Here is the input.
Amino acid sequence: MTRLEFDGVGIDIAATRIVSDVSLRIAPGEMVGLVGPNGSGKSTLLRSAYRVLRPAAGAVLIDAESVWDLSAREAARRRAIVTQHTVLGAEFSVEEVVAMGRTAHKGVLDRDGAQDRRTVEQALEDVHMGWAARRSFATLSGGEQQRVLVARALAQEAGLLILDEPTNHLDVRAQFEVLDLLRQLGLTTLTALHDLDHAVSYCDRVAVMAEGRLVAVGIPEDVLTPALVHRVFGVRAILDTHPITGRPRIAVASAGQPRATGKAIDDQVDPSPS
Ligand code: ADP
Ligand code: MG
Here is the structure.
């Protein structure tokens, strides 16, 4: 399985350093959540692994090879991407969208072969969207579209998945469906997440970005402490165990919101906003 490594990555946009000195290793099969306030550089960092933004410093390595030294085709075989705001015309059926994931495995003039069709079918089954194969992609709900985009990534048969806030705009159930699916796949996964509770309850490790730098990396419940959440996100937090799932849970509140009385949570909530 695939290993991903950011080694001292610095990224400039229009001569401004947007991401500085990020070093992060993601082990084969590990799921790492990238969290941080808006504008902290999460998407920019991910774009260096998509080969959209070439780092001005450092390197992004997939199985110890720089993604920028791979051909576009070879890169596409090793890592699949699910970005935000994927807009596809109404003319594409669901199975056509998923079949786009096969491009890196085919010659320019190849028609879809039987093997490709089976892979597409299987990918749609894996995300429980087989029933929609002939539907127009544009007519699906946001959650269904997101599952199809994950299926397209699966059809690529890459060992590494990189996702940018894949649960955005989904209702609560669809959010969990996407996250459950990512967990079940067991691929090496790096995903930006805007919901800290998703990061804490689904990820093996979290990486926290602030102002273009990595400020903490580790086991979610060790990293997303009330003090760190307050410092980085400017909100108060409690971290405890979810009574339904038994997994760690984080609840946040406005730093200015009055505190309920009579609850023994004061020791967890970061005291006074500084
Ligand atoms: P995040 O994904 O964490 O919200 P981004 O990586 O999108 O953050 O953005 C990080 C910073 O880079 C922001 O300050 C943003 O305004 C800036 N930025 C991103 N893309 C561009 C661009 N194309 N031109 C100028 N600034 C950009
Ligand atoms: Mg972003």
